[in-house]
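Write out the bound-state structure for nicotinamide-adenine-dinucleotide.
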Amino acid sequence: MKLEDVKKIAIIGSGAMGHGIAQVCAVAGINVVIKDIKQEFLDNAVSKVKESLTFLVGKGKIPQKTLDNVMNNLLTTTLDTKTAVADAQIVIEAVPEILDLKKSVFKEISGLAAKDTILATNTSTMSISEIGAVVDRPERFVGMHFFNPVNRMKLVEVIYGNKTTDETADLLVAVTEKINKKPIKVLKDSPGFIVNRINAPNQALFSAILDEGKEKPCEIDAGMKETGMPMGPFELADYVGLDVFCHTLSYYSKTLSKDYTPGKLLSEKLKNNELGMKTGKGIYDWSAGKAVIDLSKKSTTITPMELLAVQLNEAVKVYKEEVSTSTNDIDNSLVFGMNAFMGPFGLCAGQDPKILTDTLNKLSERFNLEIFKPEPEIIDGSYKNFNK
Ligand SMILES: NC(=O)c1ccc[n+]([C@@H]2O[C@H](COP(=O)([O-])OP(=O)(O)OC[C@H]3O[C@@H](n4cnc5c(N)ncnc54)[C@H](O)[C@@H]3O)[C@@H](O)[C@H]2O)c1
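---
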C-alpha cells in the first residue's frame, strides 16, 4: 500500500487521545470514522473536535473551509466495528490501557478489516508484539504512539512489534508526516519506547526522594521552576495523577528493574486515595485549585543537572539496546514529545564525563539504586561518538 491509497482511517475509542487523533487526520484531508461504545461518547468527541477547530480558525491557524470540510464531510462516527473498519486502510486503536481489552478489540477488528489494512495501537506502555499476537497478520501490526494533547504535541513514535515489516512502519511514517506530525521510528518493542523510558529513572528518583524524607517536594519544585520549568516534577506528578505515576512505575518494576517499585510514601497515598489534583490531595493540597509553592524556599541538592545526567544515562541504554540507533532521533523524541529545549545527547555534548559520572554515582549511593549507576560510555565519554 502507498500513501496515496490511504483514503480512510478508523479510530477505535473517542476519548482524550482518540478524538485528537481523529482531528489531526481529518484536518489533513483524510476521511475519518470514530468508533466508541456509547453514542454520548461519540457526540462528546465530535463537539470537542469542533471546539478545537473553531479555536484554530479564530487564531488564523486554519481556514474556515477546513473546519466546514471536517465537520460536514470528513469526520463520521459509528457504534458498529464492522462499519468503522470495513473499508479503512488504517485502524488506530485508542481504548483504555487494559491489555485484555486491547486484545479483544484487535481480535474482532482482525476478522472484519481487509487483508492489507494496517492495524496500529496507541498504547503508551504495553508490548506491541503481545497485543499484535492476536491478529491474523502481525506483519501489518504496529505501534503508533501519539502524545497528549494530540493537536499540540508533534511526536508520534512508530514502534516495531516483533513481526512488523519495514513496509508497514514506512507507510505509517509517511502517514504521520502527512498529518503534520513528527515520526520517530522505535526499532525495538521495549518498555516505555523512547520518551517514557528516558523519563522512567527520574520517576524512580522522585519516589526515592519522597521516601528519604530529607527534602521537601515543594522546595525541589521551587528550584526547578526557577530554571524555567512550567511545573516542578512533584507538582506534575500530582497533576497527571499519582495512580498513573505508580501504575507506570509498577510496570517498569516488572519489565526493567526492581528499582522501579513504587516507594512507601507513594503506595500509602494510593491506598488513601490521595491521587493528586483529581482527588484534591496528593503530594500537595489542591483544595484551592492549585498547588501552593513558595518560590523563595528552594532546595538545590537535586538540580536540573542531576535530572539531565539520569536522562542521558538512560538514553545511552536505549541506544545500546538498539531501541533507537540515532542520537538525533532520541533527542528529537524528547524535543517533539515533551517540548524539551534539547535532548540529553545535545545538552551533554560538551559536558565533562567526570562530572556526569560523579553525579550518577552519588545518586546511586544516596538512594541505593542500581539504575543510576553510570554506563561505561558515560564514564569514558564515548557516548559523544555514538551515531547521530
Ligand atoms: N491520555 C494520555 O495522556 C495518553 C497519552 C498517550 C497514549 N495514551 C494511550 O491512549 C489510549 C487511550 O487513552 P485515553 O486517555 O484516550 O483514554 P480515554 O479513557 O480518555 O478514552 C478511551 C475511550 O475508549 C472507549 N472504549 C472503551 N472500550 C471500547 C471498545 N471496545 N470499542 C471502542 N471504544 C471503546 C471509551 O468509551 C473511551 O471513550 C490508552 O492506551 C493510553 O495509554 C494516552
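---
The radius of gyration is 22 Å.
The pocket of nicotinamide-adenine-dinucleotide is lined by residues 12-18, 35-37, 41, 94-97, 105, 122-124, 146-148 (CB under 6 Å).
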